[in-house]
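Task: sequence design from structure.
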């Protein structure tokens, strides 16, 4: 059994603006209340096989040690570990905006024991994360526009 969740939000920025903020995982807790701590523990940042420690604190505390499975930056990155997989997408839209998207899948014992609770919690978590990223990426876009 697995639980899948997908969320997205439109932002007035480019995929590069979103990636510029997102790629610095050590800074995630500064702007994203979902994350308590994130740091690289092996390999080079965002290279397939590289691992990082991730502490989720909202809406429920959870510690993960995922490994990067895909890096197609600035359009998408993905990781998997501890019965969870996540993908973040930054897709340019025809109107100049960027669709910030994320999907998560939980499988195994965690998914079975939680019933639908993990899905509802992940929906809230992804909405918070994407909204916070939107705010930060739009700040970068505005600052860049002001300098030009």
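Answer:
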């Amino acid at each position: 059994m697995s639980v899948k969740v997908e969320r997205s939000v439109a932002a007035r920025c480019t995929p590069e603006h979103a990636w510029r903020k997102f790629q610095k995982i050590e800074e995630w807790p500064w702007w994203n209340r979902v994350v308590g701590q994130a740091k690289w523990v092996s390999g080079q940042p965002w290279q397939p096989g590289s691992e990082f420690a991730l502490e989720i604190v909202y809406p429920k505390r959870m510690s993960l040690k995922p490994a990067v499975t895909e890096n197609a930056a600035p359009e998408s990155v993905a990781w998997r570990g501890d019965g969870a997989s996540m993908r973040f997408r930054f897709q340019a839209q025809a109107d100049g905006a960027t669709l910030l998207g994320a999907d998560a899948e939980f499988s195994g014992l965690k998914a079975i024991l939680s019933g639908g609770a993990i899905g509802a919690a992940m929906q809230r978590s992804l909405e918070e994360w994407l909204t916070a990223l939107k705010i930060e990426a739009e700040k970068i876009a505005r600052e860049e526009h002001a300098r030009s």
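The first strand starts at residue 2 and ends at 11.
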